[in-house]
Design goal:
Layout lengths: L1 H32 L5 H22 L11 H24 L2 H8 L2 H13 L5 H18 L8 H23 L5 H23 L5 H27 L2 H4 L5 H12 L7 H24 L27 H5 L10
């Protein structure tokens, strides 16, 4: 009976995960479809339309919470990586095929593992080193250094992946000592303030269609976050996390259907190598029975990526509202 329940929960988690990542892929396609609007302006309104329902949730939630960060320097670092990562990924989506951006974001587990060595003092064994080398080879295949194909847009995508990794490391370091709401509200508020100030200098009048798209981005983010919460509540991370790679399929579908993009075989080959590297990371963690940040990696769409479980364990809905993976979470 317990085996059946576990299997059913795993399938539920996988199903919610697939739906959640599909929603995020559509979310990214909508971002890409917005043309002629500065990235600061797109980011400001997209975050604003997500920030509003989150603050409403807090307003109607009766539980008392302290909003003062216990580790302000680390929270500030999380805010910094969130803002840079958000702007980078929005810019990359607006300029590059979705498949190329996802290839770079999929490389985040490699960076997380490398950063965990000096910062968290983790030991990396042979299998992980092999996964790291394999993933780096995949990244080089996608970027093709020396061929002239590496552009500022690719640098933005790489920067987004670096911010995901840095955010994950910072959050893992402080997640057990900071309240979940604090880990969410400050990065979101920083995004609103920074992009709002920048928008004041670059604002371009928007049509009703563009404003509707920006509203849709915020709504899709909330829907995606909710589905991911349900996924990680239903099942363990090792069943849900691999569903992230389904986004490459959606990237190819949306790229061909909406943007008339033809798949680049070199990018597909590099992406396949990176995905194999990521799955090897997941397999190693499952065998070792540990839950490292790799299992909790998503993206920097709104709040800046993964979270560790916070001290506020009784406030999971608020703590996970703006992030995307499990026992927290980019």
């Amino acid at each position: 009976m317990n085996v059946d329940v576990t299997a059913n929960n795993a399938m539920k988690g996988v199903g919610f995960g697939l739906l959640g990542f599909a929603v995020f892929s559509f979310h990214d396609a909508v971002i890409k479809s917005i043309e002629g609007i500065p990235v600061f302006q797109v980011a400001f309104f997209a975050v604003l339309f997500s920030f509003v329902p989150f603050t409403l949730f807090l307003a109607f939630d009766g539980r008392e919470r302290s909003m003062r960060p216990r580790l302000p320097v680390h929270v500030a670092l999380r805010c910094l990586f969130t803002v840079i990562g958000l702007l980078s990924v929005f810019y990359a989506f607006s300029k590059l095929p979705l498949s190329e951006v996802y290839s770079m974001l999929f490389a985040a587990p490699i960076l997380i593992t490398l950063l965990a060595i000096p910062i968290l003092g983790e030991r990396i064994r042979l299998i992980r080193w092999f996964a790291i080398v394999l993933g780096l080879i995949g990244v080089l295949v996608v970027l093709r250094p020396g061929s002239g194909s590496f552009t500022f847009e690719h640098l933005a995508a790489v920067t987004a992946a670096v911010c995901v990794a840095c955010n994950s490391i910072v959050t893992r370091k402080i997640g057990s000592r900071e309240h979940s709401v604090t880990l969410i509200i400050y990065p979101m508020l920083t995004n609103v303030v920074v992009t709002g100030i920048a928008t004041a200098f670059v604002y371009v009048p928007m049509s009703g269609e563009v404003l509707l798209k920006l509203c849709a981005i915020g709504v899709l983010s909330v829907i995606g976050q909710t589905l991911m919460i349900m996924a990680y509540r239903s099942s363990e991370a090792q069943f849900v996390a691999p569903m992230q790679y389904s986004q490459m399929l959606w990237a190819l579908i949306f790229g061909a259907w909406i943007f008339n993009e033809s798949p680049d075989r070199t990018v597909l080959l590099g992406s396949a190598v990176i995905v194999c590297s990521g799955l090897l990371f997941l397999w190693r963690e499952l065998v070792a029975s540990v839950m490292q940040p790799v299992l909790r990696t998503r993206n920097v769409r709104i709040a800046g990526g993964p979270q560790a479980q916070s001290v506020e364990t009784d406030t999971a809905p608020a703590g996970r509202f703006a992030d995307e993976s499990g026992n927290r979470h980019p």
